[in-house]
């Protein structure tokens, strides 16, 4: 798949087929993630990669579906809420692979005097985007879930993660279900989002 076609085709897929992903394909996707630019050129990432469905199902128990009372969406955002909120747990359960992209953070991201922690966080998301694009290039669906409330600590304890590592998101990969629901995309174009030389 041509590079710009990959970017155009990437979508958040929250419904997956019950089908394993070949290990060599996963290794290509993970390797693509690890080529991302990093803070201070250290690449302090550890990718906990789950393919054992029993482990994935146990992990999914920590994820709480969000309530959504929207029945007739009026905007693309509301349509996304209606599709995504009830599937926060099931999209983890159904995934053939769940990647936990931990990064080592030396500085407190909440510090008001030192912003260096944000560079580690930003680099982690560059890794995540590489993985999402690589998965798309391989013909897979993908989606992320940002861990909230007690989820980060519960997942850390469940997976025996050492102190000092932060989980920015969970990445779910799998073969897209044929009837997977995808919300209408918000149009962000060069014409309506880019400012040349001044605002």
Q: In angstroms, what is the radius of gyration? A: 18 Å
Biggest β-sheet: count, sense, barrel? Answer: 5 strands, antiparallel
How far apart lie the N and C ends?
Answer: 35 Å
> Number of DSSP strands?
5
- SSE arrangement, N to C: HHEHHHEHEHEEH
User: Looking at the structure, what is the overall shape?
Assistant: globular
The structure class reads alpha+beta
Please report the number of helical segments: 8
Proportion in helices: 25-40%
So what's the oligomer here? single chain
Query: Whole-number average pLDDT?
Result: 94
Strand content: 5-15%
Q: Which runs of at least 5 residues are low in confidence (pLDDT < 50)?
A: none
InterPro entries: Nitroreductase (IPR029479), Nitroreductase-like (IPR000415), Nitroreductase/BluB (IPR050627)
Pfam family, one: Nitroreductase
GO molecular function, one term: oxidoreductase activity
Domain Nitroreductase: 7-175
């Amino acid at each position: 798949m041509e590079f710009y076609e990959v970017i155009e085709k990437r979508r958040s897929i929250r419904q997956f087929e019950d089908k394993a992903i070949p290990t060599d394909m996963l290794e290509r996707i993970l390797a693509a993630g690890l080529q991302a630019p990093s803070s201070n050129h250290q690449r302090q990432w550890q990718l906990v990669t789950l393919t054992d469905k029993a482990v994935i199902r146990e992990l999914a128990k920590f994820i709480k579906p969000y309530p959504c009372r929207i029945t007739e969406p009026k905007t693309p955002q509301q349509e996304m809420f209606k599709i995504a909120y009830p599937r926060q747990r099931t999209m983890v359960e159904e995934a053939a692979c769940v990647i936990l992209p931990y990064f080592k953070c030396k500085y407190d991201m909440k510090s008001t005097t030192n912003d260096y922690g944000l560079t580690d966080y930003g680099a982690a998301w560059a890794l995540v985007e590489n993985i999402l694009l690589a998965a798309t290039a391989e013909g897979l669906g993908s989606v992320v879930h940002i861990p909230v409330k007690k989820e980060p600590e519960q997942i850390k304890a469940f997976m025996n993660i050492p102190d000092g590592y932060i989980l920015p998101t969970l990445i779910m990969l799998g073969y897209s279900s044929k009837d997977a629901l995808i919300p209408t995309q918000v149009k962000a174009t060069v014409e309506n989002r880019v400012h040349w030389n001044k605002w």
